[in-house]
Design brief:
It is a single chain. The protein is built from two helices and five strands; from the N terminus they run βαββββα. With 86 residues, the chain is α+β, with helices and mostly antiparallel strands. The chain has a five-stranded mixed beta sheet with strand order 2-3-4-1-5, with helices on one face. A hairpin with a 2-residue loop joins strand 2 and strand 3. It is elongated and about 40 Å long. This is Glyoxalase-like domain-containing protein.
Length: 86
């Protein structure tokens, strides 16, 4: 799954572009955020951001254990775990 950050004026156009190009359903989730849902496989999102960027997200069976493993391996948790609808 990937989230592409864009400036606000481009988000809606990109969501519609990917929806039309790949046949993905565009699911507006609130101000500045739209999920892109394919018929099969991983989806993505387009969000408002100050600068363009791509963020890769993954799903895991046990979030708490995975966060603990991240820190045990020397990684850093930058944001608290959340359920963002993916």
């Amino acid at each position: 799954m990937a989230a592409q950050g864009t400036g606000r004026r481009y988000r809606e156009g990109l969501a519609q572009f990917y929806g039309a190009l790949l046949g993905w359903q565009v699911d507006e989730r609130g101000p500045g955020y739209a999920l892109l849902r394919p018929a099969q496989g991983p989806g993505g999102a387009v969000v408002d951001a100050e600068e363009a960027r791509v963020t890769i997200g993954v799903t895991v069976d046990d979030l708490a254990a995975t966060v603990e493993l991240v820190t045990a391996l020397g990684g850093q948790v930058l944001l608290p775990p959340i359920d963002d609808g993916w």
